[in-house]
Write a structure and sequence with these properties.
single chain, 371 residues, mainly alpha, Arc Repressor Mutant, subunit A, 4 domains, three-stranded antiparallel sheet, 18 helices
Length: 371
């Protein structure tokens, strides 16, 4: 009888990609990714929305479409491709997205890593999809060993979902389409004997309702969204006012209408991103360190002045130090200069003089490096 030997497991190749790549100036200057399924897949795995829990994050359709500079219709089409392959799931009402196989490529290196995921896990909204992700992640962690299993069971709280209906937003869309087809079959005009609905007229009913709101009502909606997102109520009005000053009333109103419909997890960032896109600023804005003129402008903003003979890299370093210090230039480093010890007669010996000179030279060198 021939003994069966276990074949060695093939090792997969992996590459580490920094999330901040998506915000890198040179990367953003490259030809943008066109709307497509493969581009969306890479974004779902590595985008700035991702968190420590592999494959599970909170984000909305409009927010991700804004980040990619895609139209929402194009985003939905690309997402449908990934959804049909079973590689991603979403609950758009709860703003929860899950990539089931992400944990296979991002296994925790230690039980402490699993423990660190708990804080992010608590921020994911309760829904059926979170419960499904819980069971899958639990199974993936438990096979790593007893220590990993204990860390997971101690740190992760099982979601409590009242209704376990398996309908998700994508299924709801399919049901709506089926209902429309049934109505059209019973009525040649597709109205079912009733006046045409906003959907049949090609309008989003939520958008229509938002469009009927007055300007004052929209401002109240914006402040309410910002407060729900965690911004202190005293700052909500000034934040909206600054947006109006930077982008104009019409653009901000359009951004508020979009935010009211989408209900983003981070309303402040969402509103600013929509305003930037509508004004065209998002594609042209450059970071302060990208040119000498912008560096000088940033120095003036920080209350710093270029020193005589100071080169641009040195000024940039001082600006970064001021930013790290809370917007204020750090205090100069004071170096104590030791006094030479006089000899017993009250006069300094040659050795003491030499020691004093050496100490002064060293102090001057330190001050020069600080400057």
């Amino acid at each position: 009888m021939i003994e069966q030997t276990n074949k060695p497991e093939k090792k997969s190749r992996y590459r580490k990609i920094e999330v901040r790549m998506w915000g890198d100036e040179k990367f953003r200057n490259l030809t943008p990714i066109p709307p497509c399924g493969q581009g969306l897949w890479l974004f779902l795995l590595t985008g700035p929305h991702t968190g420590p829990v592999p494959g599970l994050f909170r984000s909305g359709r409009a927010a991700m479409a804004e980040e990619l500079d895609w139209e929402l219709e194009d985003f939905d089409k690309a997402f449908k491709e990934a959804l049909s392959e079973g590689i991603v799931k979403a609950d758009w009402k709860a703003k929860v997205v899950w990539v089931p196989n992400a944990i296979k490529c991002n296994k925790p290196e230690s039980p402490n890593v699993v423990t660190s995921w708990a804080s992010e896990w608590d921020l994911i909204p309760e829904c059926d999809l979170k419960l499904e992700a819980y069971e899958s992640i639990k199974a993936s962690i438990h096979v790593l060993g007893e220590a990993f299993a204990k860390a997971f069971d101690k740190s992760f709280t099982k979601p409590t979902v009242k209704t376990m209906a398996k309908t998700c937003p994508n299924q709801e869309q399919e049901q709506e389409q089926k209902q429309k087809q049934d109505v059209k079959a019973s009525d040649p005009n597709g109205s079912g004997g009733q006046p045409p609905s906003p959907e049949s007229a090609g309008q989003n009913p939520d958008t229509k309702k938002i469009g009927e709101k007055t300007k004052q009502e929209l401002w109240r909606c914006a402040k309410s969204l910002l407060a729900q997102g965690g911004m202190p109520e005293a700052q909500c009005g000034s934040f909206v006012g600054k947006l109006v000053g930077d982008y104009g009333t019409d653009i901000v109103l359009d951004a508020v209408r979009t935010a009211v419909v989408e209900q983003p997890a981070d309303p402040a960032s969402f509103l600013k991103a929509v305003c930037q896109r509508l004004s065209g600023e998002r594609k042209t804005v450059s970071p302060w360190w990208s040119s000498e003129e912008l560096i000088l402008a940033k120095a003036a903003e920080m209350g710093l002045q270029a020193r005589p003979g100071e080169h641009t890299p040195a000024l940039k370093a001082r600006i970064e130090a001021a930013i790290a210090n809370g917007g204020k230039a750090p205090a100069p480093l004071l170096v104590a200069v030791p006094n030479p010890v006089p000899d017993a007669v009250g006069k300094r010996s040659p050795e003491a003089v030499n020691a004093g000179l050496a100490a002064m030279k060293e102090a001057a060198s330190k001050l020069k490096r600080v400057a």
